[in-house]
Design brief:
binds nicotinamide-adenine-dinucleotide; eight-stranded parallel β-sheet; 338 residues; Dihydrodipicolinate Reductase, domain 2; Rossmann fold
Length: 338
């Protein structure tokens, strides 16, 4: 059993913690935060029972007064774990890295941290081996995770020369009311970081990316255009996506007309938080023309990075030598169908 701690119990941290708690070859030793936030309160009220630690000893009384039982400090947790997953607010991870180093504990960091935090950018289906000897591993962002999965599937099958992503980016998470109300579509400078990040994990692909931020909270939607090394048909492409890992397809003709329809469907299924780990491709948007392939996919931004974060633990701790064995193990425990 690899012992893991999660630092930062917000949108991403609570999902990483739940994901690790499901891995039968990992033990979630505890979670860390600094405030009695709603996710921390919900953790206590739900009875999930993860031991809770506090990074800042001076905040312990505030948390305890709010009814949060505190097991110890971040230093206490670090004495008991093999590895931590940092999911704190952007910038905090860089400071925490020094604390992890002091305890000799390797860590993963999320997309909001600066690239300097790690010598690599990690996305398991592209560069699993790169994390084997690295103590501080930065995951790619949610959008790049989805782009990597789909581009790797096409690259493995046909070879990808060039990739262009046009990202329609949600402006905020549902609870980030400080970012709104808003009424605008905001273009970003080119190339988008998702394109330069893709070239770091798949250096042979010539990538370009655009971002337009729009006033929604239900995830991002990306229009993709890749140029392959050989000609394919739309049916070939759909078959590759059907076989691809952590990729699923939705049909507009079945009623999946928007990302909100997917979200509602997951709620109707009773999926916790309506979280989706897969990148979802709308079948009717897949079109091949010679060597050019087009599609549109949905990025469930809050959950999509969880499988790759767990894979990073597998790579760094030497749990599986082969990336697909690691992906199999993570997905089996998360309940992601092949
Ligand atoms: N929200 C998303 O959709 C999303 C998607 C992919 C990646 N990310 C990245 O994940 C990281 C976390 O984002 P988030 O949306 O979960 O943020 P969040 O604000 O929801 O959660 C961050 C948590 O860290 C806690 N925290 C702050 N300082 C701390 C400290 N010193 N010790 C312990 N906990 C501390 C905060 O109290 C908060 O609960 C960021 O790098 C972000 O860019 C976010």
């Amino acid at each position: 059993m690899v012992k893991v701690g999660v630092v930062g119990f917000g949108t991403i941290g609570e999902r990483i913690a739940d994901g690790i708690a499901k891995q039968k070859d990992m033990e979630l030793v505890g979670v860390v935060d600094v405030a009695p936030s709603l996710p921390v309160r919900a953790l206590v009220e739900s009875g999930r029972g993860y031991p809770i630690y506090c990074s800042l000893p001076e905040r312990i009384p505030t948390m305890e007064q709010a009814g949060i039982p505190i097991t110890g400090t971040l230093d206490d947790l670090l004495e008991q774990v093999d590895m931590v997953c940092d999911a704190t607010s952007p910038g905090i991870g860089m400071r925490n890295k020094e604390i992890y180093k002091k305890h000799g504990v390797p860590a993963t960091f999320q997309g909001g941290e600066k690239h300097e935090i790690s010598p690599i950018l990690f996305s398991s289906t592209a560069n699993y081996d790169a994390a084997k000897d690295i103590d501080y591993i930065k995951l790619v962002s949610c959008n790049t995770t989805g782009i990597v999965r789909t581009v790797v599937a096409m690259d493995d099958a046909f070879g990808v020369e060039k990739s262009v992503a046009t990202i329609v980016r949600r402006a905020a998470d549902p609870s980030e009311i400080h970012k709104g109300p808003i009424d605008a579509a905001i273009p970003s400078k080119v190339p988008a970081h998702q394109a330069t990040d893709l070239m770091r994990v798949l250096p042979h692909v010539d990538a370009m990316g655009f971002v337009i931020t729009v006033p929604t909270t239900h995830g991002h939607v990306i229009a993709m255009h890749v140029t392959l090394k050989s000609e394919i048909t739309t049916e070939n492409a759909l078959e590759v996506f059907r076989q691809g890992r952590r990729i699923c397809t939705f049909r507009m003709e079945d009623g999946f007309l928007s990302n909100t329809h997917i979200f509602d469907y997951l709620r109707d299924l009773g999926v916790p938080r309506a979280d989706m780990y897969e990148v979802g491709i709308w079948k009717e948007t897949v079109l091949a023309r010679g060597r050019d392939l087009y599609w549109i996919h949905n990025i469930p931004q809050e959950a999509i990075v969880i499988p790759e974060t767990i894979d990073a633990i597998r790579a760094r701790m030497g749990m599986q030598a082969d990336k697909w064995d690691a992906v199999d193990a993570t997905d089996r425990y998360l309940g992601i169908a092949k």
